[in-house]
Amino acid sequence: MAEHRAEVATQAQYPWRAVVRTIVQVGIPAFLAFAGLLPEVVQTIVEQFGEHLPEGFRLWMFAVAAGVTAVAGAITRVMALPKVIDFARKYLPWLSPDKA
For residue 81, how far is the Cα from the chain centroid? Predict the structure, then answer.
C-alpha cells in the first residue's frame, strides 16, 4: 500500500491548472448543451405551436453557459486554496485532494 505523506496538494501548488481543467471539463458540455442543443430543442417545441424563439435566446443561453463555467472555475480556485485543503484534510477527508 502507498505511504501517505501530508504534502502540499498539487491543486495548491498549481491552482490555475486545476481551474483550467475545470473550465474545460464544465465549459465543453455547458456550451454544447446551453448554446448549441437547448435552443434547437426549444425551437422545435415552439414551432409546434406556431411561434418562434425570441431573437436573443441563443445569446442568453451562451451567457448561461459562460456563467456556469465561470462559477465552476471560481469554486475550483477556492477549493485549491491551502486553507481549504487543510480544512478538508481535517474535517472532510473524503473531499481531500490527496484522498486516493
Answer: 17
Number of domains in the chain: 1
Decide if 7 is inside a domain: no
| CB of 46 closer than 8 Å to CB of 58 | no
Q: For the chain, how big is the Rg over CA atoms in Å?
A: 20
Question: How many H helices and E strands in the chain?
Answer: 5, 0
Angle between helices 15-30 and 57-79 (to 10 degrees): 150
pLDDT, residue 70, reads: 95
pTM over 0.85: no
Interacting residues of 20 by C-beta distance below 8 A, sequence separation 6+: none
Can you tell me the distance from the alpha carbon of 95 to that of 62, in angstroms, rounded to the nearest whole number? 31
User: Is 17 contained in some domain?
Assistant: yes
Range of the domain at 86: 12-95
Rounded Cα gap, residues 33 and 55, in angstroms: 18
pLDDT value at residue 99? 59
